[in-house]
Amino acid sequence: MEHSFFDELKSFMESGIYPLLGSTVVFLDPVRLLNESYSRFTISPSAYYSRRFDSNPNGDLVREGEAENLSESKKRKRKRKPKLSDLNEREREAEKRHQDARPLLLRAHRALLEASDLLGMLSKIIDNGSSSHCRRRADEVNFVELGKLWQAPLFEMSLCSRAPNNVDEGVEFDHCVERTVIPLFNNLISNEANDDAEAKFQSSRYILPSRSCFQMSDLRQVRDLIPELAHTEGALVALWMTNREKLRIFVEKELFPAWGVTDAAIFYWMKVKPDGSLICDLDSFHHRPYECLLLGYVNVNVDSECLATHKCLRSIQVIVSVPGAHSRKPPLGKLLLEHIPGPKPAKCIELFAREMVAGWTSWGNEPLHFQDSTYFLEKEGNIAPPGGINSLGNN
User: Which residues lie below 8 Å from residue 96, measured CB to CB, with a gap of 6+?
Assistant: First the structure.
């Protein structure tokens, strides 16, 4: 048994994935998963895990700067769970969904708490000796607002290419071998190298993972995009959901049918603190400690193709992790890869993206948000392999 724990921990340190109940529940370290996209840089654990949590038994979340007002705010803002008879129809349906999922979520959390070997490592994994690297700049670029300006088509960014044999540590952006200036908005920008690339916009510096591309633009016609983007030999669609019942009904009854999504499945993302406790009470009516991911297939006959081309969407039901910055979702590409139908390697795109991943296309109005260099640490003594960054033209 000890040997099994050692093997699982070793595998976790390499992959960022720790199985808790076979393949039904897994714990993720997003930092390790994201670091697979980079060669010269690493995600700073303290910058990723920048949220602060209190230690009270109810598991309420405390953000930076709020600790001194915690006791008073709890007295004023804590809401009592309403009686079932006081709920409207949608609220009752949402509560029923919660009660249906509750036994699975409790089993998943119990499995985490029983993994004492993993829990013993979490605080060290999250701190990782880099606690001084968690402050953000006050002048952080707001790409959403910039994209609304009439000047948006005129904004340009500088892209840096390094020499393949450059081994100098901490090379500054101004000492790049080659710099390319290209339009930032409504332009598909690709890093085709097997190395991280660097970009500069205004006073901020950004890190682009290898073999990735992004497009900074609005997605106003997203309802019509999925059928156009889906591969004719099959595609997997995954959509993050809040716990609002109105939105859930819209996706299940209108959006997925309009996209032609079939065989829908649901995964749960359970959010925990570094000590393994939930970020809030499981039955908190106004703030659940989990989110839902709805998944399904387009252009796939599951009955005849599922076992032949990909693994069916039944093996993972609960994903557990310590959350990062507000609304930052854990990277699930590695987990979902075996579920993707069609030719390999799979072509993957994230819509409304706020960060980039190697091998993926990131599309949205702020795909560079979490690529800011303040989220990264630079490795020492790495050699930049050959390659370059391309602008693939305006769409």
Answer: none
Q: Tell me the C-alpha to C-alpha distance, in Å, between residue 287 and each of 61, 76, 88, 98, 278.
A: 10, 16, 18, 12, 12
Please report which helix (H) or strand (E) contains residue 10, including its range.
helix 2-15
Three-state DSSP class for residue 113? helix
pLDDT tens track for 297-335 = 998 876 665 556 667 777 568 999 999 987 799 999 999
Please list the residues that pair with 189 across neighbouring strands. 214, 391
Mapping DSSP to helix (H, G, I), strand (E, B) and coil, where does residue 37 land? coil
For residue 272, give every residue at least 6 positions away whose Cβ sits within 8 Å of its Cβ, in sequence order, or none.
Answer: 109, 112, 278, 279, 289, 320, 321, 322
User: Do residues 336 and 329 lie in contact, with contact meaning Cβ atoms separated by under 8 Å?
Assistant: no
Domain boundaries, the chain: 143-218+371-394
Residue 195 has pLDDT above 80, yes or no: yes
In this predicted structure, the answer to whether residue 237 has a pLDDT above a threshold of 90 is yes
The Cβ of residue 387 has, within 10 Å, a number of other Cβ atoms equal to 17
pLDDT value of residue 79: 55
Question: 345 preceded by cis ω (within 30°)?
Answer: yes
Which residue type is seen at 120? G
Select the more confidently predicted residue: 351 or 386. 351
Q: What is the mean pLDDT of residues 54-82?
A: 47
Using the 8-state DSSP alphabet, how is residue 373 labeled?
G
Residue 211: HSE in the Cβ half-sphere, 13 Å Cα cutoff = 12
Residue 313 token pair: 């969407």
| Rounded-to-5 percentages of helix, strand, coil across the chain | 35, 25, 40
Instruction: Collapse the DSSP code of 61 into the 3-class scheme (helix H, G, I; strand E, B; otherwise coil) and give the result.
Output: strand
